[in-house]
Amino acid sequence: MEYFKSGLKTVLGSQDPEQQPSGAETVERLVERVQSSTLLDDRRDACRALKALSRKYRIEVGAQGMDALRFILETDKQDCEIIGYTLDTLSNIMSPTLFDEEEESDRQEDLRHIGEQFTEMFLKKPENVTLILSFLEEYDFKVRWPALKLLRVLLSNRLKDIQDIILVSPMGVSKLMDLLGDSREVIRNEALLLLIQLTKSNANIQKIVAFENAFDRLFDVIIEEGCADGGIVVEDCFLLMLNLLKNNSSNQNFFKEGSYIQKLCPMFTLPPDGADDNCWAPQKTAILFSVLLVVRCLVSPSNPGQVTLSCQKALFTSGIFQALTSILMASGVPINFLAEAICTLSEVIRGNHHNQQHFARVMAPISPPREAIVILLMSMVNEKQSFALRCTVLYCFQCYLFKNEDGQAQVVQTLLSPSYSEVNMVTSGQLLCSGLYSHDSLSNWLSAVALSHTLIENPAQRENLLRVLLSPDPNYRPVTLIHQVALLLQQSNKAQSKIGFLIFLGTWLSHCHLAVKHFLEVPTAIPYLTAQVGSAEGEDDNEELVQGLCAFVIGLCILFNDGTASSYDKDALIQLVSNRIGLEVFSSKLSEVSRNEFYSRASKLPQPRATKPEELLLDYEFCKLFKVLESMIVKAVNPKEPSNSAVEIAENGLVSEYKDVIREQDRKIAELQCKCDSLEKEKNQLKLTLEQLSSNVSQLSDENTLLKAQLHAGGLTHDHEHDLAMQVDGWRTECARKDATIQSLEAEVQRLNISSNQTTIESNPPTDPIESSDMDNLLELFAVQEEKLNKYKDLLRRYGEKVDDDDTDQEISPQPTSHNSPTRNNIV
Amino acid sequence: MSYAYLFKYIIIGDTGVGKSCLLLQFTDKRFQPVHDLTIGVEFGARMITIDNKYIKLQIWDTAGQEAFRSITRSYYRGAAGALLVYDITRRETFNHLTTWLDDARQHSNSNMVIMLIGNKSDLESRREVKKEEGEAFAREHGLIFMETSAKTAANVEEAFINTAKEIYEKIQEGVFDINNEANGIKIGPQHSPSNSNLPPGSKSPSQSSGCC
Questions:
Q1: Of A636, A651, A666, at which residue does a domain stop?
Q2: A470: three-class secondary structure by DSSP
Q3: Are A491 and A606 part of one and the same domain?
Q4: Interval A107-123 mean pLDDT
Q5: What is the nearest CA distance from A106 to chain B, expressed in angstroms?
Q6: Count of the separate structural domains present in chain A
Q7: Does A625 or B197 have the greater pLDDT score?
């Protein structure tokens, strides 16, 4: 705590001791820090602090921090520590249980459902769950562990929602399954618990879990933990297995086909007798109990028959049948476990002739050896045995006889064959008959119901049993069994016993004219029954049941009466009922039975189930029989009112009318069928044409698009042309403009030329002749001058004066050089 | 009966194409004209022999309805083989094949062998998809193809067995990692190559010391 406080101080800065902030304020500040801190370290510290506060101030943390925490999960994924704190905090605020810190709180009422409410908020975004699932992939314990815990919290609050989300999140189940292989036991075990929760009553998840090799994984864990000698983890493994298999025939089939039944067998190896006092230690018993539950759900009567039969076969070949029978005969087995083992064995043999035959041959290891069945029946009629055990023995016996004509015959035979008188060799039949005489009403009921099961769906044994003679008192003449039962019924004063006898009689008389005849010959039988039905309402529910069953037996006497009985033929009995009881009363008493609470309870499952002995009143098979026959009895007893011909004729008329209607309808149906066929053909044709048309259309539309495309392309060039034309126009005008200028310029030029010509014409013609003549003149002059000059030069040379030739030339050039001038001047 | 290999299959395809009937014909050799809609998935199994070896087929028949699609996807990853089924009398089931194939390729392991099946070949008069079309589709996508009838049992055995053969060949070629169960293949209890010379039950610890 001190550490936590100092941690808080570092986060929040030290506080003035007089101004301690309230929890809500602290939480608010922390949440703000989580949201706004830019440094990961700060956010992490704030999360750590929130986690610490989330137990004591869970409402505040949840209400203010949920979004911030969710945001952390998305953004700070890479930091295992902060994710761990965040997941832990979320677990705390959504936890379904109250924390110690909250126990003394005055807000307990608010807190009770707060976890659930926060869960609901959290699940508003299903992707939150997917996010948590993704953290399971992180191997770091700091993340994987709290993620697993959080998922468990979510599951316990909102099982259905989470199941639905996991089911559709990709690889959701595989991620969970991978955890079963985690080397850290604590994670593996937690994953096991999580899967047990997750697979509860969701067949789809169960199947995916099984598909992901769950059974292999589980058996790996079981072997690793030491099988039956392992701890609670092994038990958890079997509980998960049970979840996967219960009412899931697909998985049951998979379990059987995957040869997993064989893997159950080693669980049953029991140590030799008396070897170890710890042999039935509570944990081991608990494990074995869960194995029994797994076996039972494979062969449950509510499974599809196919699955049960094949599993029964596999259970026999794998040796589990054998193992169960040895548990049955072992000493020191805890009674509850023994009862469950008997039930399991019962369902392993139920309706499977092969297994039933082997069961009949199981011998108890006593001397002289006795059949296990006899030993079991002994404990059934033994008042001192526990109620649970006696019930399960009845169930075992019922399962042994279920659809087992041979077994039924054998039991009846023990009552007919002379061997029964042998000393010390009491038979099953004898045990049951002795149970009928017992003073213990439960023994009466159990024995009577057991005997009734020798007759179910077995007409031969109904007649055989009529031959059984009993001599309870050696001083009296032996009486027939049916007579005896009728007497016992009258003598008994306990509802349970009476109901038992009535069930036995009811089963016996149904569908058996001979039994009805014998019963009617018992002098007091019918008067007793009519008196019972006719008497006033019983004081308790069970009395109602007795009366209803009495009415049922009378009804059977009417229904299966072939008229050979001395005093009571069908009509006489009906007469009796209507006179003594009244038809209405009779019918209402009869209908009481199916309205009874025990009736609906017994009709649910073949196994007799009751917590207290006095609640054991009706039997599954008998209820089935009652259901079928009740309406027939009501019909048989109620005379068809204005019975005779008139109605029949009317009925016949009605029938023929209906026949006509049906014929008409038949014709119409045929007609419509024809029409339907032709329409179908037409439809197909239309479909074809439609297809053609649609292909045409698509072709056309293709073309269309193609054309459009082309058009589009064409449009582009057109634009271009337009531009060009514009340009051309531009150029053209420009050209025109320039032409005009050129023309004007030309005109100007011409004008100018003309004027210039005029001017030249004006000037030139006179100059030309002048110039040429002048030139000629000048040239002549020059030649003359040159001649003179040359003459003078010669003269000068003759006179010895040096004269340059050049001088002459220079004198000819238009610009006489200056240095010549003195000479010239000289000359001049 | 012990097996050399165990293969996991899934059957996929539109609703009503006869997936469950194919499975029933294969496992129970019977035909049920009226079959309930499959809810989620159903399991079936049978032993076959290839190359004188027992091979156990575990088959998960999935619901074709769209509503179950997200559930059935969970099964793709762990399967070694898939039968992709369409109905030759309903073209739309053929048209949807690409969707199914994309889905399967996306969620399964890449080596999964897919067999394309045109079912209801007994209803020739109502045929809407030609056999050649099926063949072409299969060729294009690298699948094996077959037309079957769950009603007359024609080609049903072959469809399941040929898929197994293909997987078996892939194993022989070493394409599959047979020790990874996520591939949908398991080696039988007595056939794991590493301890085949040891009696069953004596497991790993003695193995490493014994070999050298």
A1: A651
A2: strand
A3: yes
A4: 84
A5: 46
A6: 4
A7: A625
